[in-house]
């Protein structure tokens, strides 16, 4: 237990599972008051419960990051409850069913852009709107090694949305660093969450597949991705602006 984020309020989107839940728990362990958000109450309430069991401080807000009114209310609620907003980890995302471009379902395409890209844009819009008027802050967006850094057949919707997140992060960083808001991104490879499992695949099957597909020889651990997020959110990375940090075991090296 450390106190890197003592006295800070950290907002984590997509905090009901996977990397988002791990991030929320990690920020709380290091002293932050966490606002956990997601589109369903039960998973984020569970995250808040787990933080409380460890002695941390957290609250939950149900919000759909693709809806402007929801995101505006989310940031307003976080500030009203906890007195400010200093850190945001914009993690919410979806992974549409893979398909070749000619067979791509337009609803899947629109959903990927709405959550993965517009969700990041809206989150930053309202987070920055508060931060620049209240002493600044730090934002870490979740991109991916699929997109700007590497491509896969059948993943056009996901790759396009995450490529755009990387570019959006860099432009936003330049737009707002003089406002005192420092913005970066993390691009993980396959991690030990359900998102990296293929349909019907077991964890053992995934491990066997990635043993040869990943130069490091294994799936990434959520804690390893979260460590990168927390470093970018901390004063230790104060000179890092507009960076997209890849953590994928060497896949896109």
What does this structure look like?
This protein has 253 residues and is an alpha/beta fold. Helix content is 43%, strand content 15%. It has helices spanning 18-29, 41-53, 68-82, 106-131, 156-176, 203-213, 222-233; strands at 9-13, 33-38, 57-62, 87-90, 137-142, 181-188, 244-247. Strands 3-2-1-4-5-6-7 form a seven-stranded parallel sheet, with helices on both faces. α3 packs parallel to α4 and α4 runs parallel beside α5. The mean pLDDT is 96.
Structural class: alpha/beta
Instruction: Name the helix and strand elements from N-terminus to C-terminus, one letter apiece.
Output: EHEHEHEHEHEHHE
Oligomer: single chain
- CATH superfamily annotation: NAD(P)-binding Rossmann-like Domain
Summarize the structure.
The protein has 7 helices and 7 strands. The protein has 253 residues and is α/β, with parallel strands linked by helices. A 7-stranded parallel sheet has the order 3-2-1-4-5-6-7, with helices on both faces.
SSE layout and pairing:
Layout lengths: L8 E5 L4 H12 L3 E6 L2 H13 L3 E6 L5 H15 L4 E4 L15 H26 L5 E6 L13 H21 L4 E8 L14 H11 L8 H12 L10 E4 L6
Parallel strand pairs: 1-2, 1-4, 2-3, 4-5, 5-6, 6-7
Keywords, separated by commas or semicolons:
Rossmann fold, 7 helices, 7 strands, 253 residues, globular, 7-stranded parallel beta sheet, alpha/beta, single chain, 43% helix
